Amino acid sequence: MATEKFNEIGKGGIVKEGIFVRFPELIPAEGSNYWRGDGKRKRLLLIGESNYFTRDWAEKSVFMDAERWYKEDTDKLIPEEKKTDVSNYIDYPTFNKVFDIMDKVLDENGIEHERGLGEGAFYNYFLRPALSEGGNRGFKPENIDNEVAGVALAGIIQVISPDIIIFLSKKAYLAFKAYCERNGLSYANIYIDHLSHPSSSWWYRYECARRFEELLNKYWINH
């Protein structure tokens, strides 16, 4: 996949060089069949919340200082050893349960397909990793985090043209909604919704698996 198409997003703003020039490891993952042209289903973008670094990574990364993370001329951003971990091309149990539902919906509608993420796109909303410490992994965004994240997603939408966006994080969903309201942005032509994060107990409490399947059948599949 050509990554250069994301290079202009946010350029000249808070992240002067461009958000994905500074953080190329964080570009959205586009499945090999995201752009399928047979019209059997629409383009789906899934959005998580953030990555997580433990405190011991503070010696190799400025992630605990928001201003430095986005602005400082430094090579202490995403350490080489963490680049695979932060990639949006993910394959682990938390999100496999989501991809399995995508497979199920496509199978039940008789649509040949790639596995899971191969038929969609995935992206973590907040660009700065959360601190994972003592079992607490919730991201606490500062104003600068919210602004950069909003600019980034608005740019991504323009580049990859999703038809349906499902946030797998209420926090990320509300943050982007607030960003759009502040900046007068409207995406009336895109179906946007949110579910609980699949690693949380709320995923089961709110029957998010069933809800996700219903959303895919209603808005993702072309009947």
Strand content: 5-15%
The biggest beta sheet is recorded as:
5 strands, mixed
Count of DSSP H/I helices: 8
How many β strands by DSSP? 7
Helix and strand string, N-terminal first? HEEEHHHEEHEHEHH
Give the proportion of residues in helices. Answer: 25-40%
Sheet with most strands: strand arrangement: 1-4-2-6-7
End-to-end separation in angstroms reads 29 Å
Radius of gyration from the alpha-carbon trace, in angstroms: 17 Å
Low-pLDDT residue intervals, each spanning 5 or more residues: none
Shape estimate: globular
- On the 0 to 100 scale, the average pLDDT is 94
Structural class assignment? alpha/beta
Would you write up a description of this structure?
- The mean pLDDT is 94.
- Strands 1-4-2-6-7 form a 5-stranded mixed beta sheet. It has a two-stranded parallel sheet with strand order 3-5.
- It starts with 18 loop residues before the first helix and ends with a helix.
- With 223 residues, the chain is an alpha/beta fold.
- It has 8 helices and 7 strands.
- β6, α6 and β7 form a beta-alpha-beta unit.
Question: What structural keywords apply?
Answer:
223 residues; alpha/beta; 5-stranded mixed sheet; two-stranded parallel ribbon; 35% helix; 11% strand
List the helices and strands and how they pair.
Layout: H1 19-22, E1 29-30, E2 44-48, E3 52-54, H2 66-71, H3 83-86, H4 93-108, E4 121-124, E5 130-132, H5 143-160, E6 164-167, H6 170-183, E7 191-194, H7 202-205, H8 208-220
Parallel strand pairs: 2-4, 2-6, 3-5, 6-7
Antiparallel strand pairs: 1-4
